Amino acid sequence: MDRPSAVERTLREAAPHQVFDVLRSLIERRHQAVGVELLLADYSMSRLQPVGDLPHTGAPLSVHDSAAGRAFGAQQPHCVSDRAASTTTVHLPVSVRGDRLGVLSVTLPGGDGEEPAAGVLEDLRGYADALAHEVVVAERDTDLFLRARRAERLTLAAEMQWQLLPGRSCAREEYGIGAQLAPAYAIHGDSFDWSASADDLVLTVNNGMGEGIDAALLTNLAVNALRNARRAGLGLADQAYLADQAVYGQHGGSQYLAALLLRFDLATGNVEIIDAGSPRVWRLRAGTVEPVELEAQMPLGMFQDTVYTVQDFRVEPGDRLFFVSDGVYDALSPAGEKYSLRALTRVITDTRLLPASQVPSAVLEALLGHRGSGGPATDDALVVCLDWHGRPGAG
């Protein structure tokens, strides 16, 4: 019998491009599975793409109306019986610390309409969890999984931006975060980043000026300057100052980047924030949507030796924060009408029951409905959603 520790050890010893093949063999051997498939969410989070040797793979499945998509959305196993074939397919979420990667689908003999035994389900969940961790590690050394995520070719700017991101969602006891960029395959200037320690969460939301590779290069410079300052242990104001100087030193004020820098104290809910010409912040509290009013400061890199001032506010358990770039506000309908604040407030309210990981995609889908098929995006758009749960026992 393969214990989880033995499975993890076996996957660690596999070549990066063979991680899934090795896992499939283990499942087939232990559970006599007649089919094992790994599907990864594409960059737009709308399709689940089969992993295999391109172009010889299966057809993608919809995230919204497929059995695998149901497991992906709910982040719970979903079983489907096929009495004619006498099989049961178990779809299991493949996720790492709240970051939803895809779905592991295992087809087992026996389609009597009942779910597999609890022990079998628990065993398969262990396989899916082990696979999720190994996929993240393997992506450093193989393109197999990154290629499988592509429903179409990425632009070079989009390639640079997606490689810069920490993930698209994460979850801890104190908070949950979801984030998404659009158009996913042609994004250029928008970006986000986060990092957590035992005591705090640092979140940045960025909107670089320009288009294409120029915008992607600008964002890469600013994000890495912020990371460099953060990892040196500097406070929020110094992080902003050093990133500002890095961008100004490279471009002399001809290019700059709007940014929002936040540090959440995980024990108290106190938030330090710097609004450097940033994307806007909205708060959903007790059913009411309201803007978080901030003192606007200069974008990063606009002027030399800009001094940044930290402001403060507080989040309470149950609060939901939205960070939205101007690509959302400026989106035009076929009639030339901008996406209104009323429409944004409505979609924030309508998605209040969804987990943070699913909210950005839902907001961007509503935005797509506003633009219509005849309304192409004039700018890239970013939505970040943060749910604050607070630390149990704190306060």
Kindly summarize this structure in a few lines.
This protein has 395 residues and is α+β, with helices and mostly antiparallel strands.
Structure description:
There is one protein chain. With 395 residues, the protein is of the alpha+beta class. The chain contains eleven helices and 17 strands. β9 (190-196) and β10 form a beta hairpin. α6 packs parallel to α7 (212-231). The radius of gyration is 22 Å and the shape is globular. The termini are far apart.
Write a concise keyword list for the protein shown above.
395 residues, alpha+beta, six-stranded antiparallel β-sheet, 17 strands, PPM-type_phosphatase-like_dom, PPM-type phosphatase domain-containing protein, hydrolase, Bact_Sigma-Reg, PPM-type-like_dom_sf
Rg for CA atoms:
22 Å
Q: What coarse outline follows from CA principal-axis ratios?
A: globular
The number of distinct β-strands equals 17
Rounded average pLDDT? 91
List the secondary-structure elements in sequence, H or E.
HHEEEHEEEHHHEEEEHHEEEEEEHHHE
User: Biggest β-sheet, characterized?
Assistant: 6 strands, antiparallel
Structural class: alpha+beta
What's the arrangement of strands in the largest beta sheet?
3-2-1-6-5-4
**Intertermini distance:** 47 Å
Query: Helical content, roughly?
Result: 25-40%
- Seen as an oligomer or otherwise, the chain set is single chain
User: Low-confidence segments, ≥5 residues, pLDDT <50?
Assistant: none
Question: Count of helices?
Answer: 11
Approximate strand percentage: 25-35%
